[in-house]
């Protein structure tokens, strides 16, 4: 693994497993009365979020602080970028300040990778979501949550062999789908994309998976339904013909939930459009809706990533 994390397709199975095993250790740290270790004392991590975020930003922040790193927020709206400074000069300035890692979210697909190439080994770049491209820590936390659910947490078995995952919804606009697909397949899961034709990716040759537009047909064979958010901000209003039609065909409505096996696991990266991807009552009452567990695990996953990139030779404690 290099000193950057840009997309999960860059990692082989061993590197992914190593991160999931490290996550297991940080889950244990997170359950201690004082969930903090000194591992990254003296290191500084900058949060550079050009797009809104609740979960990713707060959990990277918490992860860094639980590792005793210093955290600084890059003020994307009030920085010298507004005076015309280039992003490259801005990044060089941040590096010159002595920052060890950048956690960056940006609407432009590929930007974190370009920054990583520009900075080389001087500073670690961690992609917190870039356009439609990748959201690697979301993929890792989704995979960890499934491994934990199916195999138990202690000494986690980092495998999804024999598990059939349906990734359901707006796959075309989803960086989460791309990262989930990479990690699920690396861990041996069978993956089926379930989306209306207008929300299926156009580059299907790069998606070595089954694809269907019929959720009800594939549902009985699924162990996991990974719902995706309908991203109104990334699509023209006319892309989905009717939200009511979408809910009828792809939403986890109460009536569809009643037809599901109780063991079926439901994931969603958040934020949820309640009443669209999933009905309120299902979200709040159904067993095996692991959305809050995904958020909780996100902190330990991000501790693992930060520790792996910045904690070389250091004991976790
Ligand atoms: N899942 C996710 O990326 O959520 P946020 O946009 O709130 O970070």
Could you characterize what this model shows?
- With 317 residues, this protein is α/β, with parallel strands linked by helices.
- The chain folds into 2 domains: 8-135 and 295-310, Rossmann fold, CATH 3.40.50; 136-291, Aspartate/ornithine carbamoyltransferase (Rossmann fold, 3-Layer(aba) Sandwich).
- Helix content is 38%, strand content 14%.
- The chain contains 11 helices and 9 strands.
- It has helices at 13-30, 55-66, 87-96, 111-119, 136-151, 175-186, 215-218, 243-250, 254-259, 280-285, 291-310, and strands spanning 44-49, 70-73, 101-106, 124-130, 164-168, 190-194, 210-212, 224-227, 265-267.
- The strands form 2 sheets. Strands 7-6-5-8-9 form a 5-stranded parallel beta sheet, covered by helices on one side. Strands 2-1-3-4 form a 4-stranded parallel beta sheet, with helices on both faces.
- Helix 4 (111-119) links the parallel strand 3 and strand 4.
- The chain is globular, with a radius of gyration of 19 Å.
- The mean pLDDT is 93.
- The structure holds phosphoric acid mono(formamide)ester (CP).
- Residues 53-56, 129, 135, 138, 269-271 line the site of phosphoric acid mono(formamide)ester (CP).
């Amino acid at each position: 693994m290099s000193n950057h994390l840009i997309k999960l397709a860059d990692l082989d199975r061993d590197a992914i497993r190593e991160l999931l095993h490290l996550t297991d250790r940080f889950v244990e740290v997170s359950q201690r009365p004082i969930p903090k270790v000194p591992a990254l004392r003296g290191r500084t991590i900058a949060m550079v979020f050009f797009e809104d975020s609740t979960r990713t930003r707060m959990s990277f922040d918490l992860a860094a602080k639980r590792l005793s790193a210093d955290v600084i927020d890059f003020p994307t709206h009030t920085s010298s970028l507004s005076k015309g400074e280039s992003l490259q000069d801005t990044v060089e300035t941040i590096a010159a300040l002595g920052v060890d890692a950048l956690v960056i979210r940006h609407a432009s697909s590929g930007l974190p990778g370009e920054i990583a190439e520009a900075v080389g080994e001087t500073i670690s770049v961690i992609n917190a979501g870039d356009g439609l491209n990748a959201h690697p820590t979301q993929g890792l936390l989704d995979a960890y949550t499934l491994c934990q659910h199916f195999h138990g947490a202690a000494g986690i078995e980092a495998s999804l062999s024999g598990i059939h995952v349906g990734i359901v919804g707006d796959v075309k606009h989803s960086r989460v789908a791309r990262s989930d697909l990479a990690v699920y397949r690396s861990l041996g899961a069978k993956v089926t994309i379930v989306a209306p034709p207008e929300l299926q990716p156009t580059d299907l040759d790069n998606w070595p998976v089954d694809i269907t537009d019929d959720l009800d047909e594939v549902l009985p064979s699924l162990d996991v339904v990974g719902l995706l958010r309908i991203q109104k901000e990334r699509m023209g209003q006319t892309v989905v013909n009717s939200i009511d039609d979408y809910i009828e065909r792809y939403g986890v409505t109460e009536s569809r939930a009643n037809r599901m096996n109780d063991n079926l696991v439901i994931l969603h990266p958040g934020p949820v459009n309640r009443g669209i991807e999933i009905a309120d009552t299902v979200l709040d009452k159904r067993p095996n809706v692991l959305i809050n567990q995904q958020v909780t695990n996100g902190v330990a996953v991000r501790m693992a990533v930060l520790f792996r990139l910045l904690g070389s030779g250091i004991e976790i404690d």
